[in-house]
Amino acid sequence: MAYWLFKSEPSTWSWQDQLAKGDAGEEWDGVRNYQARNFMREMAVGDRGFFYHSQTEKAVVGIVEVIAEAHPDSTTGDARWECVDIKAVESLPQPVTLETCKSDPRLSDMVLVNNTRLSVQPVKPEEWRIVCALGELA
Q1: In whole angstroms, what is the distance from residue 100 CA to residue 112 CA?
Q2: Which tens digits make up the pLDDT trace of 20-33?
Q3: How far apart are CA 134 and CA 131, in angstroms?
Q4: Domain that holds residue 26
Q5: How many CB atoms lie within 10 A of CB 97?
Q6: Closest among 14, 5, 13, 25 to 89, alpha carbons compared
Q7: Residues 6+ apart with CB under 8 A from 60
Q8: Sheet holding 48-53, edge to edge
Q9: What is residue 72's predicted lDDT score, i.e. its pLDDT?
Q10: Distance between CA atoms of 32 and 82, rounded to whole angstroms?
Q11: Does residue 138 register a pLDDT over 80?
Q12: Angle made by CA atoms 39, 45, 50, in degrees to the nearest 5
């Protein structure tokens, strides 16, 4: 299993919106960055990801699961753009802020800490464990 981080502006698509989709999940559409698209092409069903609120909150707020591998993005007719489908798994009891990640030396190499603009990014297994612990997940 691989781990990822999905960033969204809460005013566009929030964790509450994702939760409301239930097991049906939702396309992670609208990504127009080649690197982020390529990361989605690497994803497999069952991979897990952090759901991150960007903009004002800047925090990991939930865990999602990839439920469909990369396929054409339904929001465009341009064949270059693909997306995966994800579903909400659980909320973090304690959101983990970008500030917390930046201040933790164990996360100094995390993509989120070094490239805050990339909307879809990989997370190393050790980083996953650390952020889950900071978020008070067992």
Answers
A1: 11
A2: 999 999 999 999 99
A3: 5
A4: 3-134
A5: 16
A6: 25
A7: 5, 50, 51, 52, 92, 95, 96, 101, 131, 135
A8: 26-27, 82-97, 59-72, 48-53, 3-8, 120-123
A9: 98
A10: 9
A11: no
A12: 60
pLDDT at 116: 80
Mean pLDDT for all residues in the chain: 97
Contacts of 91 (CB under 8 A, 6+ apart): 15, 19, 61, 62, 63
Phi-psi domain of 85 (left: phi exceeds 0; alpha: psi -120 through 50; beta: other)? beta
60 neighbors 96 (Cβ within 8 angstroms): yes
* C-alpha–C-alpha distance, residues 109 and 90, integer Å: 25
Position 56 confidence tier, pLDDT thresholds 50, 70, 90 = confident
Return the residue matching tokens 């609120």: 53
- Mean local confidence (pLDDT), 126-132: 98
5: exposed, middle or buried (Cβ count in 10 Å: 0-12, 13-18, 19+): buried
Q: What is the CATH number of the domain that holds 30?
A: 3.10.590.10
Write the single-letter amino acid at 127.
E
Residues 6+ apart with CB under 8 A from 16: none
Number of domains in the chain: 1
User: Can you tell me the distance from the alpha carbon of 131 to that of 126, in angstroms, rounded to the nearest whole number?
Assistant: 9
